[in-house]
Amino acid sequence: MGHSQAEKAQNRERILAEAARQIREGGLESLSVAQLMKSVNLTHGGFYGHFESRSELVSLALERALAEGRIAVRAANDEGEGPDFPEMVGRYLSRSHRDAKRSGCAIAALATDVGRADANSREVMEQRIERFFETARAALGQDDEDKAIFAVCAMVGGLTLARVMTDPGRSDTVLRAVREQLLKLESEAG
After folding, report:
1. CB proximity list for 76: less than 8 A, separation 6 or greater
2. Which stretches of 2-144 are DSSP H helices?
3. What is the mean pLDDT of residues 34-38?
4. Smallest Cα–Cα separation from 155: which of 178, 132, 173?
5. Cβ contacts of residue 165 below 8 Å, gap of 6+?
6. I need a labelling partner for 184 at 20 to 30 A (CA). Which of 5, 11, 46, 75 fits?
7. Which CATH number is associated with domain 3-189?
8. How far apart are CA 121 and CA 111, in angstroms?
9. By three-state DSSP, how is residue 83 classified?
10. Is pLDDT above 70 for 74?
11. What whole-number distance in Å separates Cα of residue 140 and Cα of residue 145?
12. Could you give the CA distance from residue 82 to residue 17 in angstroms, rounded to a whole number?
């Protein structure tokens, strides 16, 4: 690869990394191509040398944000094995995860935005949600898909609502209540 091609690849990588960071922080609609390109010290006009459209950029940045969350989960697990269900629930519905809006679960941060987005972005997140369902099913140690779907929905919803609460004590109560109910689900499964 020539110098210009290597530089182009590096620039594309910088654009995607910054776009993923921006959408995690401010949502899909917060992403402005002009501001993004300025933030990585490139010209607005150069954008189309890297991407066909803003829609393509959003889909790829969303994919990046979701992948970063998955990598963080894998890094937290020993030897790449999936967590057991109580560990999964405890990590997901924790204060540290609630407070990690920039690096926490992109599903919780962006699901509402993606629900209003184009089909490409919805498909990107749908694939990640399906993997989350499978991870929860495996962590529950059973083939009950409905319980796994319920668990994921409760975790994402609980985290999302805990982030909305302005009173830290009430936010902690939301996290605790959802954790406790999900752990009851797991004990019923055993």
Report:
1. 83, 91
2. 3-26, 33-39, 54-76, 85-92, 95-99, 106-115, 119-140
3. 94
4. 178
5. 171, 174
6. 75
7. 1.10.357.10
8. 10
9. coil
10. no
11. 10
12. 26
For tokens 């010209």, the residue is: 43
pTM of the model: 0.83
Q: Tell me the residue type at 76.
A: A
User: What tokens does 177 get?
Assistant: 């209540």
* Pick from 107, 188, 183: nearest CA to 151: 183
CA distances from 139 to 21, 44, 47 (A): 29, 46, 42
Mean pLDDT on 153-170: 97
Q: Which residue has the tokens 């499978």?
A: 134
Tell me the three state secondary structure of residue 60: helix
- Going 163 to 165 to 170 to 173, the CA torsion angle's sign is negative
The residue to which tokens 């699901």 are assigned: 111
pLDDT of 83 reads: 77
Q: Rounded to an integer, what distance in angstroms lies between the CA atom of residue 36 and that of residue 61?
A: 12
